[in-house]
Design brief:
Blueprint (H helix, E strand, L loop, with lengths): L4 E6 L3 H8 L7 E5 L3 E6 L4 H7 L4 E7 H7 L20 H14 L4 E8 L5 E7 L11 E6 L6 H16 L3 H9 L1 E5 L4 H9 L54 H12 L4 E9 L3 E4 L11 H19 L4 E4 H4 L7 H8 L4 E7 L14 H23 L2
Parallel strand pairs: 7-8, 7-9, 9-12, 10-11
Antiparallel strand pairs: 1-3, 1-4, 2-3, 5-6, 6-8, 10-12
Length: 392
């Protein structure tokens, strides 16, 4: 295997940002980034050329890709009673088995179901956690989808921690949420991509669908495949080889279509939609299309700032709230923007979890537990404000 290098640069103006947003121009891949930094996957033979191109930027060589990947530990132990550990990452099979085990043990409050199958035929398994059982609560539910971009393993781990807390926490506050809401949680929204990151390419982020590329490129960025300003304003790519390829049409990929269909089926009761991603430490809200404030801007900003403050109390981690466009970049066709616009959900957020670029998508497993606990601190604030604002 040819080792590649992860590099980071800070972009200080719009021209530099545009250079960072088009890494294909230099023969490299953009892993993640925003208006402040970007992580690039750099073949060693062109690193010196890239460094020359980005000479005017603050560029930092982080480390060998192999070293970072070796820090990640994938579970090899048997899972007991569905309870996962928070010092390791898990395979798709393990995560789905955990969901089934938890639902079996907690059958009065939890049940698993599938929202459909992926391009390669894998189940998109979700869990419903509810005190109401088969009878839905009449006044609201929350929905948490995660990992449309599959190289971000931390998001699935945090999602699994949320499930664990809803089912096993002794905190009165967390258990009280189930008096008001039904929770629907899909830990892995792109099962084909997630599996591929474990078997073949750790940095894979798209689906695994054949997309008509004349040179054999595979996959669609599922978070650019929803029908909200699809492929407009430079917010996605029409190049099938790009990591931000928007697909051949809105909902062209089965995973995005399955999410659309399920969300639509519960839309009359949908109060809160949350999508987890990494990295950057942002609490994002609509839209990614342009800088026009949404009508609910003040409410979103207030709740986001309160959550950001709570996130920092435990470990001092700094989160920033704002719209996708203003804090990150132009991004169109996202699940969050589509849910906000088409389904009129009361509150829709996208989280970019740890970190700010040191590890990026290769967040070491020793950061799973602090990431999860600080996230729950902020989620408590959001749930309090959600009830105050919308369940009056």
């Amino acid at each position: 295997m040819t080792m590649k290098t992860v590099g980071h640069f800070l972009s200080e103006n719009e021209e530099q940002w545009k250079a960072g947003q088009n890494p294909e121009d230099y023969g490299v891949s953009l892993i993640s980034g925003d208006r402040e930094y970007a992580s690039l996957l750099v073949p060693p033979q062109i690193f010196s050329k890239l460094n020359d191109k980005l000479l005017q930027m603050t560029f930092e060589l982080t480390s060998s890709l192999k070293i970072l990947i070796d820090l990640e530990k994938v579970n090899q132990d048997k899972i007991v009673d569905g309870r996962l550990e928070w010092d390791r990452y898990y395979t798709l099979e393990d995560i789905h088995q955990s969901l089934d085990d938890l639902a079996s043990i907690n059958n009065a409050t939890a049940s698993t179901f599938s929202i459909g199958t992926s391009y390669e035929g894998r189940e998109m398994k979700a869990i419903k956690i509810s005190k109401s059982g088969e009878t839905d609560l009449p006044f609201g539910l929350t929905l948490i989808f995660t990992q449309e971009s599959e190289s971000t393993w931390i998001t699935g781990a945090v999602c699994n921690y949320i499930i664990d807390q809803l089912l096993n926490s002794n905190e009165t506050e967390i258990q009280s949420w189930l008096d008001e809401y039904d929770f629907y949680i899909l830990p892995i929204a792109n099962p084909d991509g997630y599996e591929f990151t474990h078997t073949t390419d750790r940095f894979w982020r798209k689906s695994r669908s054949e997309n008509g590329s004349p040179v054999g490129c595979i996959g669609t960025d599922l978070n650019r495949n929803f029908d909200f300003h699809w492929l407009e304003n430079g917010g996605a790519s029409s190049n099938p080889c790009s990591n931000t390829f928007a697909g051949n049409s809105p909902f062209s990929d089965s995973e995005a279509a399955n999410m659309r269909d399920f969300l639509t089926s519960i839309s009359s009761r949908l109060v809160f939609y949350l999508s987890l991603h990494s990295s950057g430490q942002y609490i994002l809200f609509p839209t990614g299309f342009d800088d026009t404030p949404i009508p609910q801007y003040n409410t979103y900003m207030s709740i986001g700032n309160l959550a950001a403050e709570a996130h920092g109390i435990r470990h001092g981690t700094n989160f920033t709230a704002g719209s996708v466009y203003n804090l990150m970049y132009t991004a169109t066709g996202s699940s969050m923007d589509w849910t906000w616009n088409a389904l009129k959900a009361n509150l829709t957020f996208t989280y970019e979890l740890r970190d700010k670029g040191q590890f990026g998508h290769l967040l070491p497993p020793d950061q799973i537990y602090p990431s999860a606990t600080e996230f729950m601190d902020g989620l408590k604030v959001i749930m309090t404000e959600l009830s105050r604002e919308y369940l009056k």
